[in-house]
């Protein structure tokens, strides 16, 4: 029972964090191509990315991809270079976004 109460007490913090990450993804133009699921035809959904990289071993690679863009990350899709069709992403922002996305594997 006490653990349930602790969990319930953390829901607002989780909700705020999710909203913050959703806003960051929007600000950095991630949502122009990616969605939570594979509903967008241009790029894989965050949940698919989380499932593919669920072991976390590729976290550093994903951070680099978020920061630099490029191609051959997922089939033949090309992720725009920063400044091209998307905003610059700092390393700290990329780490936050990758952790948020990888956390979707547990949902």
Folded structure, characterized:
The protein is mainly alpha-helical and 107 residues long. It has a domain at 44-107: Cytochrome c-like domain (Cytochrome Bc1 Complex, Chain D, domain 2, Orthogonal Bundle). It has helices at 2-27, 46-52, 59-68, 91-103; strands spanning 70-71, 78-79. Strands 1-2 form a two-stranded antiparallel ribbon. The longest helix is centred in the first third of the chain and has 26 residues, at 2-27.
Keywords:
single chain, 107 residues, mainly alpha, Cytochrome Bc1 Complex, Chain D, domain 2, two-stranded antiparallel sheet, 4 helices, metal-binding
Tell me the CATH architecture of the domain at 44-107: Orthogonal Bundle
Q: Which percent bin holds the helix content?
A: 40-55%
Structural class: mainly alpha
Q: What is the CA-based Rg, rounded?
A: 15 Å
- Count helical runs: 4
| Biggest sheet record | 2 strands, antiparallel
- CATH topology annotation of the domain at 44-107: Cytochrome Bc1 Complex, Chain D, domain 2
Unreliable stretches (pLDDT < 50, length at least 5) are 1-11
- CATH domain class name of the domain at 44-107: Mainly Alpha
- Spatial shape: globular
Strand content: under 5%
Count of extended strands? 2
Strand order within the widest beta sheet: 1-2
Report, as a whole number of angstroms, the end-to-end distance. Answer: 22 Å
Overall mean pLDDT stands at 80
CATH-assigned homologous superfamily of the domain at 44-107 = Cytochrome c-like domain
Order of helices and strands: HHHEEH
Organism: Halomonas nitroreducens
Keywords: Heme, Iron, Metal-binding
GO molecular function: electron transfer activity; heme binding; metal ion binding
Domain Cytochrome c: 15-105
